Amino acid sequence: MAKSILAVDDSASIRQMVTFTLKSAGYDVIEAVDGEDGLAKAKTKAVDLVLTDQNMPRMDGLSMVRALRRLPAYRTAPILILTTESGDAIKSEGRAAGATGWLVKPFDPKRLLEVVRKVIG
Amino acid sequence: MTQVVEAGAAGSSAAVKAGHAAAAAGGMAREFLTFRLGEEEYGIDILKVQEIRGYEAVTAIANTPSFIKGVINLRGTIIPIVDMRIKFNLGNVEYNIFTVVIILNVAGRIVGMVVDSVSDVISLSAEQMRPAPSFAAGLDTQYIMGLGTVDSRMLILADIEKLMTSSDMALTDMAVQ
Amino acid sequence: MTIDMSQFYQVFFEESAELLGEMERLLLELDVDAPGKDELNAIFRTAHSIKGGAGTFGFNEITETTHILESLLDKLRNDQLRLKSEMVDVFLKAVDVLKMQLAGRQSGSEVDAQAVADICQRLHELADGKPAAPVAAAPAAVAPVAAMTAVKAAPGASAPTALDPAPVDPSPENLYAILTGAAVSAAAVAAASPPDAEAFGLFAETPVQPGDADVPRRRATDAAAEAAPKTGRRAGDRAEAAEASSIRVGVEKVDQLINLVGELVITQAMLAQTASRVDPVLYESLMNGLATLERNTRDLQESVMSIRMMPISFVFSRFPRVVRDLAAKLSKQVELKTVGEGTELDKGLIEKIADPLNHLVRNSLDHGIETPDKRVAAGKDPKGTITLRAFHQGGNIIVEVADDGAGLSRARILAKARERGLAVSDDMPDQDVWQMIFEAGFSTADVVTDVSGRGVGMDVVRRNIHGMGGSIEISSLLGSGTCISIRLPLTLAILDGMSVGVGKEIFIIPLTYIIESLQPAPGDIKTISGQGRVVQVRGEYLPVVALHEKFNLKSNVADMDKGIMVILESEGAKTALFVDELVGQHQVVIKSLETNYRKAQGISGATIMGDGKVALILDVGALVRLSKPELLKAA
């Protein structure tokens, strides 16, 4: 069965690009527009990987990660933060929130697929 | 090749359709729908003819030339009806069950014109067509493409699209050439 | 597998346009003295989002501009810098520059590289808190590579320095390498990520959080059901509310739908007419079915019409900026108020009303609102107010532009009218005097500014409004202000009308113009010196327009007191329309006459009645206007 990915980003164009890239590679993709939406969607279906932007209205990425980690289904699920920074701040914040790793924005489809394959195969 | 058309509107759509088919088939000949107006017989490009109908009650529009009778509802579209008999001052004009209206599709517009009667659809080859005369009854020579002869009949071949879109007919806000 | 990124560009352009609009709105609403933290964060996020998208799709010049903007905004939201009002001006200019850069990418329009360089420099200077050392215009002069569209550098731009105009690798990692090659201030470089391979990473251990009481229920929903919308279909949800998802549909499809519903209305009317001749008792279930059909049709029609309805805020939203810029230019203090932004109108009208409103607002700013000195001298607040108001009334939408400025001068307008040879009289009602400003070339402005005053605007405004089937009225008080009120039909396709009979013909009068109808008493109708008829209605004398005379028809009614007077009002003037009889009230579908024929005088359109016959819809505005000279001569 195909692996499923939850893609959370408030930018429609980025979401579309990510969805298209991952679907073309055979993954199932669920989109969400911000942290709250992502949390709600994660609860209705357990996905194999969560990709989330950081800066979003209503609930940002790290807050969502923290909330996800409190759900038994997502205790150890792979979660990657898509961030525009790669400095130490985001790394420590990300780790503290419970993220599995990070991917720097902007990224191109090739890089995205490489990373996703590395994490969930 | 001619197809005889019954007087009146009934049965004519088949003839028109056949005319369209023949015109599409191409060749050197052209297909014309012929009709009578007063003493003259006219021929117009069959491809400009959409259908033939009887005359039905028209909604008049004020302050328009007398030959513009008004508008009718043609299956949901509003189209103007002009009476060419009035335009050419042909005297007594009657409207009854034999009155024929030719529905034209010219320059993207649909217009209906009342004539005395519709004859048939005729195919004319180049040899059967002659250049336009320098005179004609009623019809300005700029709208005459030429003369057609079939047996003993002489047909005035009219450029119906040019006529209907000209300012003479007052059907458009500006003359569409 | 290579993915063609250009398929996502259009969504990015639309998304960025929305974000820029939001940024502008937030900037205009900012309280410079005490900017809210949430607002600053929101503004930061808009810049950040655009930067993210631009970076992903390789629009480097846009990434660069937004990056500098974002850095400055970041400092502001973290209290590292204090907001100053000139910063807001610079931010607004940056919004303009970004719009230009986006347009350059989207449609190949020219991008003024000097303007880009200037704004980047200003932003740098503000970020540093002091005027920066002269910065080369270099970064802006870089020709973006692999550009879908051409970007022309302004001839005046400083020569690019360390950058070669040859194709540069647009990949994100190299962006900052490019920037560091140019003479860019330290701030930008510090904010840039180090262009090395730390673009992805996993934390050594994934921390596990202690479980909570809440156990999410795993629904058995299939993944497919939840899956994202298919590629190519745009799920245009902005994060306002997770429920608010939308679909983009082509306008032609919506119009087609409206046409089909229109045909349905006509067919249903025909059925109702036929059924009215049938014994209702015998065919009870048929009658019930038809009644239900009528309700269903009406509901469907309302539903479909509402698809094209959009709030007028789409038009109003541009005006805060217009007023701000123009007031500054004219050295006036003006506040813009908007009321009823949620009022909806047809999308087609939204597009058409923008220009006339623009002209009216600029006019108010230019000629209405006085300079602060003049206002104080007149005992007014130095700050003037322009109010844009919209509301529904009957089957119409009313849009008003009001100002508390100088008002219209009756004397000046009359003088100017006489000068131009227009027919005027000293005791013309105010309404008629004000309408003179719509005459072509009419302007009482002392000075023709480049904003307005050439007098070419108002007649075009009125013509446009009439072209939309609407009307425009003015009310004004010298010294207090002016209010211009535009009335527009709510929809272009369907109309509530009263059918009237004249001779054998039926005409439709749009209900919104009808005040009342009455049968006049013989003594109420008077003729004035053989020139025109008037009828007395409650103490007022109104000009009479006999429809059968206007349309050369034979009336069935011998004397006027045996027929009906329909009292109409348009643009502040009333007229009594004489007809034979009232036939009924219906909702009619408007059909075009111009498609196959032409514009007919006094007629605004046509419709197909229940019996299949065509009925003409009266152009009430034109009829009322035509009747005025009669009264004027009579006066």
Uncertain parts of chain C: 132-196, 206-243, 630-635
Radius of gyration of chain B: 15 Å
Structural class given helices, strands, pairing of chain B?
Answer: mainly beta
Q: Determine the N-to-C terminus distance of chain C.
A: 83 Å
Strand and helix order of chain B: EHEEEEEHEEEEEEH
Describe the model.
The complex is a heterotrimer of chains A (about 120), B (about 180) and C (about 625). Chain A has helices at about 10-25, 35-45, 60-70, 90-95, 110-120; strands at about 5-10, 30, 50-55, 80-85, 100-105. With about 120 residues, chain A is α/β, with parallel strands linked by helices. Chain A has one domain: 3-Layer(aba) Sandwich (Rossmann fold). Chain A has a five-stranded parallel sheet with strand order 2-1-3-4-5, sandwiched between helices. In chain A, strand 1 (about 5-10), helix 1 and strand 2 (about 30) form a beta-alpha-beta unit. In chain A, helix 2 (about 35-45) runs parallel beside helix 3. The model of chain A has no long low-confidence stretch (mean pLDDT about 90). With about 180 residues, chain B is mainly beta. Chain B is built from three helices and twelve strands; from the N terminus they run E-H-E-E-E-E-E-H-E-E-E-E-E-E-H. Chain B has a seven-stranded mixed sheet with strand order 1-9-2-3-12-11-10. Chain B has a five-stranded mixed sheet with strand order 4-7-8-6-5. The longest helix of chain B has 14 residues, at about 10-25. Chain C is built from 20 helices and 19 strands. Chain C has a six-stranded mixed sheet with strand order 11-15-16-14-13-12. The longest helix of chain C is centred in the middle third of the chain and has 25 residues, at about 250-275. Residues about 130-195, about 205-245 and about 630-635 of chain C have low confidence and may be disordered. The chains are: A alpha/beta (about 120), B mainly beta (about 180), C alpha+beta (about 625). The interface between B and C is medium-sized, with 23 and 27 residues.
